[in-house]
User: What shape does this take?
Amino acid sequence: MQTEIAAVSDVTFVIEPGEMVGYIGANGAGKSTTIKMLTGILTPTSGEIVCNGFVPDRDRTRYVATIGVVFGQRTQLWWDIAVVESFKLLKEIYGVSDEDYRRRMALFDTVLGINAYLHQPVRKLSLGERMRCDLAASLIHRPPLLFLDEPTIGLDIVAKANVREFLQEINRKEGTTVLLTTHDLSDIETLCRRVIVIDHGRLLFDGPLSSLRDRILPVTSVVFDVKRAPEAVELRFNGLQAREIASHRYAVDIDRRAISAASAVKEIVNRFEVTDLMIEEPQIEEVVKRIYREGIA
Assistant: This one.
């Protein structure tokens, strides 16, 4: 007896032109299925999808000319030929003029530095080099919409930074809309103001990243150094409790729903001989771990 499982169900959202949106969820949450439906690879069994004025699975030939897609674990480049030959093929496929092609290639080299390996076969590129070329290939026809599925997977810190800087630049200069799925939450923090969270095929959250933090982990830590170590009795004040985390260093955890960080800082500075102070927000990784573990109330 076969059991039907809905990979994605009751997921509704609208992305405005020029937005950069993070689409996150645990493995098996339905992220890749959503991307495949949005790009026209899969046909939804019900509901409606409209992207750039097209229904992806019905108008696929015209639609794909208006999007760029990068799957981090796959390449759209031809494996055994030089990178530049792949670009020339894509130029002809998308009908890019010679002038536009030259301008695009100049931009890609300025931001991604791809000229150094344009004449190497794709199979000889490192993962970071190939990812830069895949990003360039996905944008060679200047699409208004870009889908990214794990674009920084397996990349080192420098390569990740280059990819992120390029995406910010292309969004700023050309207003490219970006939907980003990733397990590297640093990508989300760096690139996206808005995040959509999906779990078991259902939408859990859609809104600003800051609101997600406030809803799931509304705790901020004020960490401060002091000249003189206070007595234990001095560590509790006005409903706050400071704890020692190192020699002459203390931390106060505050619930942002009850007291602002500014108020807590003022209280601390007035009570202690503070030599240094910093405010630490909860890491997005901790927020998402809690969502996966406990859901969203």
In short: The first helix runs from residue 31 to 38. The mean pLDDT is 89. The first strand starts at residue 20 and ends at 24. The chain is about 35% helix and 20% strand.
